[in-house]
Amino acid sequence: MAMPKLAPAPAAHDKLKALGILALNGMFDEMDAVGVLRYAITEVLPGDLAIVSSFGADSAVLLHMVAQVDPSLPVYFLETGKHFPETLAYVETLKTTLGLSNVRAILPDAKDVLRFDPNGDLWETDPDSCCHIRKTEPLEPITEQFGGWVTGRKRYQTTERGVLPHFELTSDDRIKVNPLAYFSDADVVEYRQAHRLPEHPLYAKGYKSIGCAPCTSVVAEGEDPRAGRWRGLNKKECGIHYDFSGAIANPMTAAARHTLWKDGAFIADPFKDWEEGANPSEARYVHVPLPVFLANRAEFLANPHPLGLLVSPGEKIEDVADDLARFASVAVRFPAFSDGRGYSTARLLVERLKYAGEIRAVGDVLQDQIPHMRRCGFNALVVTHEPTRQALIENRLPEMALFYQPVGVTEVPVGTRPFLRRVS
């Protein structure tokens, strides 16, 4: 009996529905990993499929299968800049041994790393943001080029992956293929030994799941194989994977998750809210309320980590004029749409105090305000209001040509004679 075929890409991703994925999952034996992979490559998404590999402890097994079916399949490796040297050497070993001809490295954006993680220690305090700028953000534009991609995920690795099928339909109508979904640790070891595949140099040392060096540790006998990833933290995934249940990660695009609008896009935000009682000498990537900064000025100035400043209505930005260079970002709070005092704060920062860093609007930020905010010097916005988010994404903000309260020397107030205006 001939196997059913799905329409070729790119039309395939637009038409595939959950029912079609269920049918695909019913076509293969649980352990027929090569069959799943071959059908995905040749029938489901021919020429429109790629694989993302960590080149970790189990990667040789799936990559060996890829080499059997199509050694020219694009294989993407997230070169986060935080890998073990042994992992980087292992990439070259597997390329040569398996004859993989299309391995491509994905690097994080250098500007994001410089802005969010200038000291390379973001993983210590905010591993989610570290993963985001080094993995999720760089990978997303790559996966958008394909109708689907292959992963090495397995059900046994964590309880969150216990419902993992061979084929998944993502929220944006792409297909995720998991050929090893039903493989156990013993199955992986047996396959590796049967085909005499090179072992990751760290595997014999107790590293059963290998990611970035700072966030990977040895796994003890009887522990979950992924217990050594982000040990001691409430974190189990790096954010690039999600399944049909949404249990692993929220199936949303990066733009939908972000609230910081800057340089024409919603981007990852390294800054967090200040928490009452936090230690001023250890704070990092937080917007410190102005009164808190003044009360602990010496400690904050001695703190070597990046900091921001939060200014609320009624607070005088002039009180910290001499210390503005200390802050990578100044957040001006708009508690309500009708409270316009934040505009004056931004103008003072730009025009009188000559602050050249990030000035962001936070709070009740709506699309009608944004043209005014930009005129006054705001170059970043924290936006949670969904219609405003869409207006920014679609570039359909209101425009202004008339000004009752002009900014600078170029705008002319309504009802005046421009030639009589004095330039200060």
From TrEMBL:
<protein>
    <recommendedName>
        <fullName>Adenosine 5'-phosphosulfate reductase</fullName>
        <ecNumber>1.8.4.10</ecNumber>
    </recommendedName>
</protein>
<comment type="similarity">
    <text>Belongs to the PAPS reductase family. CysH subfamily.</text>
</comment>
<dbReference type="GO" id="GO:0051539">
    <property type="term" value="F:4 iron, 4 sulfur cluster binding"/>
</dbReference>
<feature type="binding site">
    <location>
        <position position="130"/>
    </location>
    <ligand>
        <name>[4Fe-4S] cluster</name>
    </ligand>
</feature>
<dbReference type="Pfam" id="PF06073">
    <property type="entry name" value="DUF934"/>
</dbReference>
<dbReference type="GO" id="GO:0004604">
    <property type="term" value="F:phosphoadenylyl-sulfate reductase (thioredoxin) activity"/>
</dbReference>
<keyword id="KW-0479">Metal-binding</keyword>
<comment type="function">
    <text>Catalyzes the formation of sulfite from adenosine 5'-phosphosulfate (APS) using thioredoxin as an electron donor.</text>
</comment>
<keyword id="KW-0560">Oxidoreductase</keyword>
<feature type="binding site">
    <location>
        <position position="131"/>
    </location>
    <ligand>
        <name>[4Fe-4S] cluster</name>
    </ligand>
</feature>
<dbReference type="InterPro" id="IPR014729">
    <property type="entry name" value="Rossmann-like_a/b/a_fold"/>
</dbReference>
<feature type="active site" description="Nucleophile; cysteine thiosulfonate intermediate">
    <location>
        <position position="238"/>
    </location>
</feature>
<dbReference type="InterPro" id="IPR004511">
    <property type="entry name" value="PAPS/APS_Rdtase"/>
</dbReference>
<dbReference type="InterPro" id="IPR008318">
    <property type="entry name" value="UCP030820"/>
</dbReference>
<comment type="pathway">
    <text>Sulfur metabolism; hydrogen sulfide biosynthesis; sulfite from sulfate.</text>
</comment>
<dbReference type="GO" id="GO:0046872">
    <property type="term" value="F:metal ion binding"/>
</dbReference>
<dbReference type="InterPro" id="IPR002500">
    <property type="entry name" value="PAPS_reduct_dom"/>
</dbReference>
<keyword id="KW-0411">Iron-sulfur</keyword>
<dbReference type="GO" id="GO:0005737">
    <property type="term" value="C:cytoplasm"/>
</dbReference>
<keyword id="KW-0963">Cytoplasm</keyword>
<feature type="binding site">
    <location>
        <position position="215"/>
    </location>
    <ligand>
        <name>[4Fe-4S] cluster</name>
    </ligand>
</feature>
<dbReference type="GO" id="GO:0070814">
    <property type="term" value="P:hydrogen sulfide biosynthetic process"/>
</dbReference>
<feature type="domain" description="Phosphoadenosine phosphosulphate reductase">
    <location>
        <begin position="49"/>
        <end position="217"/>
    </location>
</feature>
<dbReference type="GO" id="GO:0043866">
    <property type="term" value="F:adenylyl-sulfate reductase (thioredoxin) activity"/>
</dbReference>
<feature type="binding site">
    <location>
        <position position="212"/>
    </location>
    <ligand>
        <name>[4Fe-4S] cluster</name>
    </ligand>
</feature>
<keyword id="KW-0408">Iron</keyword>
<dbReference type="GO" id="GO:0019379">
    <property type="term" value="P:sulfate assimilation, phosphoadenylyl sulfate reduction by phosphoadenylyl-sulfate reductase (thioredoxin)"/>
</dbReference>
<dbReference type="Pfam" id="PF01507">
    <property type="entry name" value="PAPS_reduct"/>
</dbReference>
